[in-house]
Amino acid sequence: MEKQSEEQAAAEPADSGGEGGPPQVAGAQAARPEDRMTLLLRLRAQTKQQLLEYNSMVDANEERTPEQIIQEKQIEAKIEELEKEIEEVKIAFEMKKLALDRMQLSTALKKNLEKMDIKTSVLMDNMTQILNLNKLIMKLQQETWDLEEKLLDVRKKRLQLKQASESKLLEIQTEKNKQKGDLDSMENSDKIKNIQQNLQKEIQITTVIQHVFQNLILGSKVNWAEDSALKEMVLQLEKNLTMIQ
Amino acid sequence: MSVLRPLDKLPGLNTATILLVGTDDVLLQQLAGSMLKEDCASELKVHLAKSLPLPSDVNRPRIDLIVFVVNLHSQHSLRNVEESLHHVDSTFFLGKVSFLATGAGQESHCSVHRNTVVKLAHTYRSPLLFCDLEVEGFRTTMAQRLVRMLQICAGHVPGVSALNLLSLLRSTENPSLEDL
């Protein structure tokens, strides 16, 4: 209804960083009375809206002055809450839209399916293929599960064997330790010492007896070398009994 | 007058004023042209500026929407926008500021990363629009969109305010940017 024309653009290019020039608007006059009526009504609405804006600004300015600092945090919290609400509404809207899309899609699909021939339809082909693939996937998954189970079994066995060998080794170790301890205790015991002392004594006695016999034989002036039995005996007497140990 | 405030003047009757800020004059002119071609019940006024602050001696109507145009092909335009942002009052960012990144179509020419602009827009809690202004069709669509936004920001659409629009435009897609 009204035409605007842009004129006088860039009128002040030399202005230091300033305005490039305001293009002015020339409004044409409204022709008919009905148009004027609507224009007036619109102007009324506009003025009301602008008045509302100015009023709200005045209100806001008045409110601010006394408790501005205290309220700031509350306002921030409030803003957050309101933003959250807006977000929630948006999300709900999106969800509803998605649901609607899905419903539309399913309806369209249904209609199409009804129309199409069952045997030739691409959709059916796709469907059957998908089904086959799904079956294959399930089968393969079953196989993998079985294999995994087997693997687990093997691992379990290995673990058991390991534990068994460990316990056996432990047993061997204790056995060895025990033996060693026994030996140690035996060597140090009084019994052994007594026996050793006895043995020493006996050896000494035997040595003395040997010497006595030797001297007896030598003193009797028998030619001991001729009699083989005697010879053997004399030679045997020569043995050093301390070496027996 | 160094700082631009949104509601310090009375609105003109049935007029909506947009301020396009950017270094690339030709693109801004073209965009302004496309916007003025749009069929719109309110009177549109398009102001172009290379950077802010605006000169104080000019008598200008109330500005309802500022669009910062960042050309992704030049670092200079980004810096210019960043500096201009200091001259905008904080209440402007309640929905009356928007960023427009152009040139994303030609990836090889880009010297400003897309994320930088996204982060900038996120810092100022303002919507970021992407558009290749050099392509005629895209420009027309963007002009339509801007005109609609401008009408809302100027209060010409009953029941919807700029702040309202801002909260609707906020995207949920990249919450991670907040953590960056």
From TrEMBL, chain B:
Membrane-spanning residues: none
Native source organism of the sequence: Camelus dromedarius
Its job: Component of the CENPA-NAC (nucleosome-associated) complex, a complex that plays a central role in assembly of kinetochore proteins, mitotic progression and chromosome segregation. The CENPA-NAC complex recruits the CENPA-CAD (nucleosome distal) complex and may be involved in incorporation of newly synthesized CENPA into centromeres.
Assembly: Component of the CENPA-NAC complex, at least composed of CENPA, CENPC, CENPH, CENPM, CENPN, CENPT and CENPU. The CENPA-NAC complex interacts with the CENPA-CAD complex, composed of CENPI, CENPK, CENPL, CENPO, CENPP, CENPQ, CENPR and CENPS.
Keywords of the record: Centromere, Chromosome, Cytoplasm, Kinetochore, Nucleus
InterPro entries hit by this protein: Centromere_Cenp-M (IPR020987), P-loop_NTPase (IPR027417)
One family name in Pfam for this protein: CENP-M
Main location: nucleus
Coiled coil feature spans: none
Name the UniProt record assigns to this protein: Centromere protein M
GO cellular component terms, A-Z: cytoplasm; kinetochore; nucleus
Subcellular location: Chromosome, Centromere, Kinetochore; Cytoplasm; Nucleus
